[in-house]
Amino acid sequence: MSASRVAIRYARALVELLNEKNALGEVQAFLDFCDMAIADPQLGPLFANVTVSAGDKAGVAAGLAKNLALPETIARFLHTLAVNGRMGILPELKEAVAQRLDDCNNIRSVKLTCAVAPSDTEVAALKKAMRGLLGGDVRIETLEDPSVLGGAIAQVGSIVYDGSVKGRLNRLRQELVKEN
Predict the structure, then answer these.
(1) Distance between terminal CA atoms of the chain?
(2) Distances (CA, A) of 20 to 14, 15, 142, 153
């Protein structure tokens, strides 16, 4: 099974448990732990190393949980990850947990690709329009790609709204090829 599929299962378990306990706020402690572990030049490789025993990883995770004063549920979750040999999927797990939390809070992520960075006013207008279209709050991540030429491409999950000049030119080219 792929790391992302495993991460999705663990993410679902963590977020559902915390939701049942009315403690979704604790998810942020886990996300912060993941950021720290992934960025650390020693921890990331240690957790990903298959030659380091699960017990050693569990000990490191327990020590970090204590030093960082992580909530008990998060500390136990980290222990479970370590014992089951899943500390190496922290990057995928962080992404899956964040997505699951957004789902619980009815927040949709939109990746907006533009030729140049949009202004705050443009982002606010798009956010308002996307809220109406998607029926929930929206988090926009902007990316710059000069090959777009102009306009924008908005991606929500697997759905792509292409309003770019490049996209329009490609569609026009396809129509011209069909006519000939």
Answers:
(1) 47
(2) 10, 9, 34, 37
Quick check: 74 and 31 in contact, CB under 8 A? no
- Stretch 142-157: mean pLDDT: 87
The CA-based dihedral angle spanning residues 163, 169, 170, 175, taken in that order and rounded to the nearest 10 degrees: 110
Domain with 83 in it:
3-103
pTM of structure:
0.72
pLDDT of residue 25: 86
| 150 and 83 assigned to the same domain | no
Domain count for the chain, please give it: 2
Distance from the Cα of residue 84 to its chain's centroid: 22
Q: Could you tell me how many helices (H) and strands (E) the chain has, helices first?
A: 8, 4
Q: Would you say residue 17 has pLDDT above 70?
A: yes
Q: pLDDT of 122-144, one tens digit each?
A: 889 888 888 888 888 888 899 99
Distance CA 50, CA 94 (A): 20
Beta strands in the chain (DSSP E): 107-114, 137-144, 152-156, 159-162
Choose the final residue of a domain: 61, 76, 103: 103
